[in-house]
Design brief:
Elements: E1 2-6, H1 14-28, E2 31-36, H2 38-47, E3 55-59, H3 70-76, H4 81-91, E4 96-99, H5 103-114, E5 124-131, E6 134-139, H6 149-167, E7 173-177, H7 188-198, E8 203-208, E9 220-222, H8 225-250, H9 254-262, H10 264-273, E10 282-285, E11 291-293, H11 300-315, H12 318-340
Parallel strand pairs: 1-2, 1-4, 2-3, 4-11, 6-9, 7-8, 7-9
Antiparallel strand pairs: 5-6, 5-10, 10-11
Helix pairs in contact: 1-2, 1-11, 3-5, 4-5, 6-7, 6-12
Length: 341
């Protein structure tokens, strides 16, 4: 197995991305093809003394900027590191793609180069958020700001499969994010999606509220990309604020410092639980391939774990399971229609 890594993506460029891929090779034995400016990437490999590891280089002469329009990246930068990495996956030379670059460009290039799975109208970003029950999958976390009810239905199926195959939930509980738990709450989008979800074979628990993302009541939270992205960014900011406040309070006086020393292991465990870098990045589900999108400011640990999660996606056959689940729901719906006739 080989993972194509966009070495030029992200806020810090090849210095961090290459080190993350090298760390994945050292710790997990995973092979990567680092795509980008060959001279720059090879300098980083030499700096890390990683010449003997299973990391190779594929040259790409262009880079997609973080603020660059997706259409511009798709049409005018056909030799970008992101495009070349996607082409490696399409040709079968690589099995999955990891990028910390432009999210919109990653989605557009993924759809254009790799295509979408049968039964999927729009890919969706699935973000893993910490909860009292482990991890909650939030889908969509930013790819589709104005979806239709059938898109939310597809998001729910893809999130169910990802939660089961990657997070390890046996029968994930699926909830629809709304402004109240009652069936009639929400807007036209959520009310219509509710009607589709309650007749599915999914373990649908109905409408949920924002607090249910973290209290362990739900394993998959389904929403539109606008709302989901706001939830994701608020969550990241809240985690950073709480960590900073705890650190500030623990260093306030000698008694707090003593308590902090005694509780250090507990605080370290808590920090790992809320650390987004443990999952590396968010998968773009629905693409006919495996694509992990990382935060632009991802550190080495996030890139390393993104490579790991990409490999797990391929090993567990997530895409095949998504196709099977979508087909099963179509058959179920057709059976209901036939029964009514």
């Amino acid at each position: 197995m080989k993972i194509a890594v966009d070495a030029m993506g992200g806020d810090f460029g090849p210095a961090v991305v290459v080190e993350g891929a090298v760390a994945a090779a050292r710790e997990f034995g995973l092979a990567s093809v680092l795509v980008g400016d060959k001279a720059a990437v090879e300098r980083e490999i030499a700096r890390l003394k990683a010449q003997e590891l299973p990391v190779s280089v594929r040259h790409a002469s262009q880079v997609v900027g973080m603020a660059e329009p997706a259409s511009h990246a798709l049409r005018r930068k056909r030799d970008s590191s992101l495009r070349v990495a996607a082409e490696l996956c399409k040709s079968g030379e690589c099995d999955a793609l990891v990028s910390a670059g432009n999210t919109g460009a990653a989605m557009a290039i993924g759809m254009f180069v790799l295509g979408v799975l049968p039964g999927v109208d729009r890919p969706a970003i699935a973000a893993a958020l910490p909860s009292l029950a482990g991890y909650t999958i939030l889908i969509d976390a930013g790819a589709n700001v104005d979806p239709k009810p059938r898109h939310l239905f597809q998001f729910a199926i893809m999130g169910h499969v990802y939660s089961r195959d990657i997070v390890g939930k046996d029968n994930p509980r699926v909830g629809l994010l709304s402004v109240g738990e009652e069936e009639g709450k929400g807007n036209d989008l959520t009310r219509e999606a509710f009607d589709e979800l309650r007749t599915s074979s999914l373990n649908f628990i109905g409408n949920i509220e924002g607090r249910d993302i973290y209290n362990g009541r739900c394993d998959v939270v389904v929403t539109d990309g606008f709302t989901g992205n706001v939830c994701l960014k608020v969550s990241e900011s809240l985690a950073e604020m709480l960590t900073a406040m705890i650190r500030e309070e623990l260093g306030r006086n000698v008694f707090s410092l003593a308590g902090a020393a005694l509780s250090r292991r507990a605080f370290d465990r808590m920090k790992r639980r809320v650390d987004y870098t443990e999952m590396g990045g968010a998968p773009l589900l629905g693409i006919n391939g495996a694509s992990i999108i990382c935060h632009g400011a991802s550190p080495v640990k996030a890139i390393k774990n993104a490579v790991r999660v990409a490999a797990e996606w391929v090993k567990n056959g997530v895409n095949e399971h998504i196709k099977t689940a979508l087909e099963a729901e179509v058959e179920l719906a057709e059976g209901r229609e036939g029964g009514r006739e």
